[in-house]
Write a structure and sequence with these properties.
Cytidine Deaminase, domain 2, DUF4192, alpha+beta, DUF4192 domain-containing protein
Length: 349
């Protein structure tokens, strides 16, 4: 069963709080909240009164996975304690004869029972044929509740996303392509250079933190991609767990945007298993920003590159539990203190 993807987009300062009054407003906002147009997906949106607080997306499950999925989704729902949730199914195989024969009606029934068991109401349960403008949508429990998909690009969230420079991708695969690795020959060349570097040199912790800090600081003014030598030196630094963990500190404050772009370029350009370090840092930075979609694809890249990666495992647990970005910001703040300590200790040596 695929891990759920959490989105804190409605709590990030890049987008204003979203107040949802009608199902069609909600449906049109989903692609911009997730960062991509969902297909064959279950989207769960938690509300406090009429305000959207967090969103989760997961692939539509097989029949035998319905109840395990419901139990998994209850973890973040309990964490956020919403007054109600909205259940949206996008796509799925089946007929569209509302309300009895809509696709994945049994999934909605299982989720409705699960949510009710913890005292949370299901405000709406909706099937949407697709995210295409004009596609039909129907409520699962009301034959008179339905309509057609509004133009997602004309929603208030779309306008806010465009103003903030946030890209909404056509599908999840297009978003995942952001972290696609460089060509095999490039990765093989850098892997060989890493082998040589490991034999010849080690980077002290304080020096490694300074190296990463300087790379983050220089990134906004860069006009060329990172060189092989720069990639290798940064990977050598991040191979020290203390440097990597201290680098979480760059995910907050004025360095966060530059750090995210640096981690993204390194995730693309590094061989496995070393790419797990920048990929995890990318996931962490995106998650703090409220971009659950990018955090998910970056974390998948990290887990694929290095199964069992410690920091990736911690972040995976945070996503699966639906921890709000503010709850894990303390990790970055602690990392900043650790970095300062190492730099001070290094200066005295």
């Amino acid at each position: 069963m695929r891990q759920t993807e959490q989105s804190g987009a409605m709590t990030t300062p890049l987008l204003p709080p979203l107040r949802v009054l009608a199902p069609e407003d909600l449906i049109a906002s989903v692609p911009h909240i997730l960062g991509f147009h969902p297909d064959d997906s279950l989207v769960v949106m938690a509300m406090h009164e009429h305000n959207l607080t967090f969103t989760m997306r997961v692939d539509l499950p097989l029949a035998r996975h319905r109840r395990p999925l419901a139990e998994q989704l209850l973890i973040p729902i309990r964490e956020h304690q919403p007054t109600s949730v909205l259940l949206l199914v996008f796509g799925g195989v089946g007929t569209a004869d509302p309300p009895e024969e809509l696709p994945h009606k049994k999934l909605i029934d299982v989720l409705d029972d699960a949510v009710d068991s913890i005292g949370v109401a299901v405000a709406h349960a909706v099937w949407v044929q697709s995210c295409q403008t004009g596609a039909p949508w129907y409520c699962y429990d009301d034959i008179d509740c339905g309509g057609t998909m509004p133009d997602p690009s004309s929603s208030p969230v779309a306008a806010a996303s465009a103003a903030a420079g946030i890209v909404t991708f056509s599908n999840r695969a297009e978003m995942a392509a952001l972290v696609a690795p460089a060509p095999d020959d490039v990765l093989a060349r850098r892997s060989a250079l890493l082998d040589e570097a490991v034999e010849e040199q080690r980077i002290a912790t304080a020096a490694g933190i300074r190296l990463v800090r300087d790379a983050v600081g220089e990134f906004p003014s860069r006009t060329n991609p990172l060189t092989d030598d720069e990639i290798v030196r940064l990977l050598m630094a991040l191979s020290d767990d203390r440097v990597r963990d201290a680098s979480l500190s760059f995910s907050i404050g004025p360095t966060s945007a530059a750090a995210e772009h640096l981690w993204l370029e390194m995730t693309r350009g590094c061989p496995a298993p070393e790419r797990a370090d920048p990929a995890t840092l990318l996931a962490f930075t995106a998650y703090l920003r409220g971009d659950g979609g990018l955090a998910s694809v970056a974390l998948h890249a990290a887990e694929t590159a290095c199964p069992g990666h410690r920091l990736a495992g911690l972040l995976r647990h945070a996503l699966d539990c639906g921890l709000a970005p503010a709850r894990i910001r303390a990790l970055a703040q602690g990392a900043a203190q650790e970095a300062a300590w190492h730099l001070a200790a290094g200066a005295q040596q």
